[in-house]
Design goal:
This protein has helices spanning 11-26, 36-40, 49-56, 100-114, 121-128, 135-149, 153-169, 174-189, 197-214, 219-232, 236-249, 254-265; strands at 2-3, 60-69, 72-81, 86-96. With 266 residues, it is α+β, with helices and mostly antiparallel strands.
Length: 266
């Protein structure tokens, strides 16, 4: 997704929107989605779509843009078949910043419809129930996630601060609570937090429980539980069970696959 705001400071927001879209698409049964890390290498590429698709080993590419102004956001998306290169679908979705997650769910549902994949009842219900999120909470969450992905011990503390800010602004933000849990797990794992490992475990557990109560089908919450079991509690069997469930229900959840590999080696 291209950044149409023309300011690099907005890049974490755009990348966050792309990450949410990948997460929504990864829930669709029978659809394999490339991870954000692999896709981002082509963010500023001039390569033709068929060459990008061949490099990634995919049949089709979604490209688009994000534009935000004040409290409104516009997402434009286009689904392109690689061989032969054909535009299959394109549309524009506009709404308030608080509806950012709902916009990405609408894009994912449109893609599923275009390629004739029927959504499972569970996936359809999950996508349909996307609630609005406080705009400032969404902003803090996307910034926190961006820093969290760096795995830089010098940034993990600041990442957790942003993720906790998100749920402080909107206590019903399930994805935000899953982010808080991940923040404590990775922060403690990299020894980047000024609290004990035991306290980090308790806070991560509480955040996961809160996320699952708010959204029982949230794969990010189940993945966070698997990471907690694996990295902080050394419960390898429990981690394998939890993360295997995530990749079964969300086969393109790249982070869950990564963590599951670590759990299996344990």
């Amino acid at each position: 997704l291209a950044n149409l705001m023309g300011d690099d400071s907005d890049r974490p927001f755009v990348d966050g929107m792309q990450d949410i879209l990948i997460g929504e698409l990864s829930r669709i049964d029978g659809l394999s989605v490339i991870s954000q890390r692999s896709a981002l290498q082509f963010r500023d590429s001039d390569l033709p779509i068929p060459a990008i698709a061949d490099s990634l080993g995919v049949d089709a590419v979604i490209e688009g843009s994000v534009f935000r102004q004040a409290d409104s956001v516009r997402v434009t998306a286009r689904l392109i078949r690689a061989a032969p290169e054909t535009d299959l679908w394109n549309d524009t979705y506009e709404g308030r910043l608080s509806e950012a997650m709902s916009l990405q769910s609408r894009v994912a549902r449109a893609v599923a419809g275009e390629i004739r994949i029927a959504l499972s009842d569970e996936t359809a219900a999950h996508m349909a129930r996307r609630d609005s999120v406080d705009p400032n909470a969404m902003e803090a969450y996307l910034l926190g996630r961006e820093m969290w992905k760096s795995r830089d011990p010098n940034r993990l503390g600041a990442a957790l601060e942003q993720l906790e800010k998100a749920v402080a602004l909107d206590s019903t933000f399930a994805l935000g609570w899953a982010g808080v849990a991940d923040g404590y797990v990775m922060g403690a794992g990299y020894r980047a937090l000024a609290i004990s490992r035991e306290e980090a475990v308790g806070r991560a557990q509480a955040a996961i429980d809160r996320a699952e109560r708010l959204d029982p089908g949230l794969m990010e919450a189940h993945a966070a539980r698997g990471a907690l079991l694996l990295y902080l509690q050394q419960d390898f069997r429990g981690a394998v069970d939890e993360l295997a469930r995530v990749v079964e229900l969300s086969p393109s959840h790249a982070q869950a696959h990564d963590w599951l590999g670590d759990a299996l080696m344990g």
